[in-house]
Amino acid sequence: MNDSLHSPLHGLRVAVTGGTSGLGLALVRALHANGAQVAFVARDAARVRRVAVELPGVHGIVGDVARQDDTHRIALQIAGALGGLDLLVNNASSLGPVPLALLADTECEDLQAAFATNVVGAFRLTKALLGALASAAREGRPAQIVNITSDAAVNAYAGWGAYGASKAALLQLSRIWHEELREHGVAVTAFDPGDMDTPLHALAVPDADPAALKRPADAARELLALITSSTPSARSTASPTGARA
Amino acid sequence: MKAATLAIQRPHDAKLLVIDANGTLQHAPRERLADFLRAGDLLIANDAATLPASLSGLHLRSAAPIEVRLAGRRSLAPDDVHEFVAVVFGAGDHRTPTEHRTLPPALRAGDRLALGPLRAQVLRTLGHARLIALRFDGSADTIRAGIARHGKPVQYAHLPQPLALWDVWTRVAAQPVAFEAPSAGFVLDWRLLHTLHDHGVAFATLTHAAGLSSTGDAELDARLPLDEPYHLPAATVRAIALARRRGGRVVALGTTVTRALEHAAAHGLRAGDGIADQRLGAHTTLRVVDAIISGTYEPGTSHRELLRAFASDAVLARADAELARRGYLTHEFGDSVLIAA
Predict the structure, then answer these.
(1) Is B155 inside a domain boundary?
(2) Nearest-by-CA chain B residue for A68
(3) Active site (catalytic) residues of A
(4) Which site in A41, B127, B294, B301 is 20 to 30 Å from B29, CA atoms measured?
(5) How far apart are CA B268 and CA B278, in angstroms?
(6) Does domain A2-228 have CATH number 3.40.50.720?
(7) Chain A window 185-244: which residues touch B at a Cβ cutoff of 8 Å?
(8) pTM for this one?
């Protein structure tokens, strides 16, 4: 743990949505191990409590980024617990229809659910926390937003319509926001972690061989390396595996 | 003056009364605010986000309904959310003007309060039936979650519709430590910040735990503003020094920014934490702030008293008349004034 004192992540104030499973949980663990000050958000109170107990000093917040009424309650708890914010990771994601459906079979409500979490939810929370991030930048801290996207945002995979379209929107939001926030010192990055062995992937592809999938901890390590690299910019990082989700 | 009754931070027809250092008055659309700042000037805002500081619940000893409005804290430290100074009302809500609100049941040290998911204890009364120090049970995270879920923004009868947090967070809202919105900052949006940047006007912030603007009780109102902790970032101190060297003005966005900066200036203007405990008025010699942009004000308020530090009584009397004559709106969502000292 003493290594964390030398980590560039030490003392960084980070919020991660979708922090109780998959990539989000792996990120929370890795950030904690590197001495970052971490707050995470998830919908299920019992799971939030479990992760908060596992990682002393980490702040667990119960809320649903897809719900408008939750946005500022979440933002208040993040900025309050951390005394500000340096890095926001919009990781919480919805697949849309489960099991995956062809676009023409996708119910409007399932499409809306994917956009509510993946686009509108990330947009709202980012807006609510932009003041805190810009404040960090004015104080000379490296302020950054990372939106978790997917190669399904770029490539057309049959069956991934709701998810892919919403992640494409998130990717474009990231690019435009990066341009607009540059003068305020806030960098916005879209990160595609690749095909991981996560609950979300298991919902999408129940018969996938877990051994063929990337471990979330490895994707988390890649993302942290990206965060600590010198000048982040808005881009869709190529997934090393080139696989979807 | 009439109150602005809609929770719109930047109405398109908002007005701005500009009072220059010679006491000349000029009316302008507030959308033209940037035109009244010059290259080299430094605009400083309060980036405190606003807590939903109104907590309704029960005084358990009497089983009587109460409304607790958090009003003061010792510091801005994230862990320091257990103890607060609070103003307490009896039954009712913001739709009743505060001056008509009932007193709470008699409050004694040790009394327990149930405020939604939160539990608190009265630590002591503070020389008035409505003013107490209280302590919440639980961890800092639990307290924050309880306030976030159960609290409502403090509001007054001139705004009938219930406010949501997004109505009272400014565009630059960061650390949630204010009890009422630092509402002069409602003029800010990212477009304005971009325009200022283009015009060579620098922008900086401090964080100041703005307290209640009114309690409806003359004796308590006379004690406002309560002591308010603030944080002055090193970057802001550097920006002030730079503006001075360039011959620019330091323009405070709001009374809370003025109070924090002048408090810090009286102690050497060093970056860090402080507690603003002074009153500003006609007697004040401004050490750092050259101009203020604030909401319009009503006669007899501490807000107008503070503006006497910027302009003479004769100039303010003319301004009072102009604000009334031109139908400027007042209160937190109202029109604005810019006064150069």
Answers:
(1) no
(2) B166
(3) 163
(4) B301
(5) 15
(6) yes
(7) none
(8) 0.95
Q: Do A131 and B49 touch (CB under 8 A)?
A: yes
Task: For A86, name the nearest residue in chain B, comparing CA atoms only.
Answer: B174
Last residue of one domain, picked from the residues B123, B150, B177 = B150
3-state secondary structure of A42: strand
Are residues B327 and B244 located together in one domain of the fold?
A: yes
Regarding whether B178 and B133 lie in a shared domain, the answer is no
Chain B residues whose CB is inside 8 A of the A130 CB are: 171
Return phi, psi of residue B263, to 5°.
Answer: -65, -45
Beta-carbon contacts of B319 under 8 Å, excluding residues fewer than 6 positions away, are B17, B19, B25, B311, B337
- Interface ipTM above 0.95: yes
* CATH code of the domain covering residue B325: 3.40.1780.10
As a whole number of angstroms, the distance between CA B184 and CA B293 comes to: 7
pLDDT at residue A241 greater than cutoff 90: no
Scan residues 43-62 of A and list those with Cβ closer than 8 Å to B: 52, 59-62
Interchain CB distance below 8 Å, A128 and B190: no
Where do we find the tokens 């479990």? A50
Residue A73 has its nearest CB partner, among B78, B148, B203, at: B148
- Which residues in chain B (189-208) have CB-CB distances under 8 A to chain A? 190, 193-194, 197, 203-205, 207
Distance from CA of B182 to the nearest CA of A (A): 14
Nearest to A121 by CA among A86, A94, A159: A94
Write the pLDDT tens digit of every residue in B316-336: 999 999 999 999 999 999 999
Round to whole Å and give the CA distance between B205 and B222. Answer: 28
- Nearest residue to A143 via CA among A16, A8, A27, A12: A12
Instruction: Find which of A123, A135, A176 to mutate to test the B interface (most B CBs within 10 Å of its CB).
Output: A135
Q: Is B47 exposed, middle or buried (0-12, 13-18, 19+ CB in 10 A)?
A: buried
| CB-CB neighbors (< 8 A) of A128 in chain B | 166, 169, 173
Which pLDDT score, from 0 to 100, does residue A7 have? 87
- Give the gap in angstroms from C-alpha A184 to the nearest C-alpha of chain B: 9
* pLDDT on residue B1: 85
